[in-house]
Amino acid sequence: MRRAPAPAVRTHRATSPWLFLLPGLAVVSAFGLYPFLTTVHQAFTDARTLTPGTWVGLDNFRRMLDDEQFWVALRNSGLYVALVVPFTVLLPLLLALLVQKPLKGVAFFRAAFYTPVVASVVVVALIWGWMLDDRGLVNGILRVLGAGPVDFLGDAWLLLLSAMALTVWKGLGYYMVIYLAALGNVPHELHEAAAVDGAGALRRFVGVTVPAVRSTMVLVAALSSVSAFKVFSEVYLLAGPTGGPAGQDTTLVMLVQRTGTGLAGRVGYASALSLVVFVIALLLMLLVLRADRKEDR
Amino acid sequence: MLRTSGWEKALRYVLMLGVLALTVGPFLWQLSTSLKGTTEDIYTSPPRFLPEHPTGHNYAEVAGVVPVWDYALNSLRVAVASVVTNLVGASMAGYALARLRFRGRRAAGLVFVAALLVPVESVVIAQFTLVRELNLNNTLTAVVLPGAVGALNVLLMRNAFAALPYETEEAAVIDGANAWQRFTRIALPSVRGTLAVVAIFSFMGAWDDFLWPLIVLSDADNFTLTVGLNFLHGTFTQNPRLVAAGTVIAVAPLLVMFACLQRYFFRGVGEGAVKG
């Protein structure tokens, strides 16, 4: 975007800009940056909800290494990234290609595909919970087909996979819109030339579309890997506050929430876990963006 | 020109209808469940998609077991407050960053960029500590505060103001208008589209938020819809009709808003994702 040059002469009082910035800076500092510094500090203390705590050095991080719950949560959040991101990068792209042609009624379909994005994650998780119930819609259909019933919400692995499917489904429309914007910039002649050369649909997809929207695919991968790693609501709502059978479905953010809240909350330990969430989310983002730059060379 | 053959057209429509069933179908199924009476079997196989005798009974009953309308009102208050604070705070800050010349401008901009890099999930515990120290825990004010001025919204507004040609304000400067007058009379009316995007995404963000209100609200009277639905689900799973009615109440306002203001939703995705 073109940036207008700042005016050459100052046309306002010296304090004006700071008055303009006051509300925004106050909120962002008080509820964004300050809590971040508190988190870093508390990660090295044994603070609890009702007691400020004392400096304990690296104790919280050492305890993490022996905490079975932590490893389960890290595994689940990691798996969430590994399994959700590929689908989130690919399916919305295919969907965008499907609704890109200006056919009659296509605007309606685009809007309809966006519906799950608008709905609250709580609403869609409850809808899915009801559909995947052992006597719900999906098992009803499976029974007609002579299969099932499948206990989607009773088995720890099926439950986690169901939550992942929910996440992919809810994001379809959002990433589709991002891809539609990118596809609008792909010159039509490229496709025509490839078609004239006799390239089939698959060859044109791999040879023309993918290279043309590659940077958007990387952006989607970055956005979705960070948000998949931070998953909370989908799993919390489908598996319940304790994280499914024997807590086997707990994710890292669920562990933060469970550890750090309530009257007996272990704020220090939860802060250390929060710091792990922050560092890994940042690394994921950098990793994906770096992968993009490497391929450019 | 590549011609779209009849076959291809038909295939595209079939696929689009298939995806439509997958994306919108679950909502319709939920609506249908919410309209089924207590005597109607909701567990039939094959599933019955239309209620035999549609009834609004569940909507009346769900209000009897949890104060769902109070929750809706709480959500509405939180969402409206968030829209107002974001519009005011983000446009003012964005204007200063884009249009005013002062020492520290770069640093101020960096504060917002830095805030964007910190995931909410990694600071909720510290936010909760802060809110308790301020004696605001279990209040709707506390639900609004952390998202009152979103860093992304500030940057969106900054970009919108920066894209305006500077000449629009020059005449006003010559006429002696001060910064505040130029902001409210000239700059703001020129960025209405971005203001709409900020308003819509603030509303949606606040209405749909779950983790933060779940942590900060402990008293059932103050629940927002999302936390209240979670509570309803935990207590009354035996009757999916009631949960269905609750979810329909929670999702309907947003779907109506989406239907009316579609283009701003799509624009918001583009601006938020690409420039954020």
Characterization of the model:
The complex is a heterodimer of chains A (297) and B (276). Chain A has a single domain (59-296), classed as Orthogonal Bundle (MetI-like fold). In chain A, 70% of the residues lie in helices and 0% in strands. Chain A is built from 13 helices and no strands. In chain A, helix 3 packs across helix 12 (252-260), helix 4 (106-118) packs across helix 7 and helix 10 (214-229) runs antiparallel to helix 13 (267-296). The radius of gyration of chain A is 24 Å and the shape is globular. Chain B has 276 residues and is mostly helical. Chain B has helices spanning 6-34, 57-65, 68-99, 105-117, 124-133, 140-144, 151-162, 167-174, 179-190, 192-208, 211-216, 225-235, 240-275. The two termini of chain B are 36 Å apart. Helices cover 72% and strands 0% of the residues of chain B. The model of chain B has no long low-confidence stretch (mean pLDDT 89). Chain B has 2 domains: 6-55, no CATH class; 66-275, MetI-like (MetI-like fold, Orthogonal Bundle), CATH 1.10.3720.10. At the A-B interface, helix 1, helix 4, helix 5, helix 6 and helix 7 of A face helix 1, helix 3, helix 4, helix 5 and helix 7 of B.
Give a brief description.
The complex is a heterodimer of chains A (297) and B (276). Chain A is mostly helical and 297 residues long. Chain A has helices at residues 16-42, 59-66, 68-98, 106-118, 121-131, 137-144, 156-183, 188-196, 201-212, 214-229, 233-239, 252-260, 267-296.
Please tag this protein with its features.
heterodimer, A: mainly alpha, MetI-like fold, 13 helices, B: 276 residues, mainly alpha, 2 domains
Give the beta-strand count of chain A: 0
Number of helices of chain B: 13
What is the rounded distance between the termini of chain B? 36 Å
The helix-strand sequence of chain B is HHHHHHHHHHHHH
For this structure, what is the CATH homologous superfamily of the largest domain in chain B? MetI-like
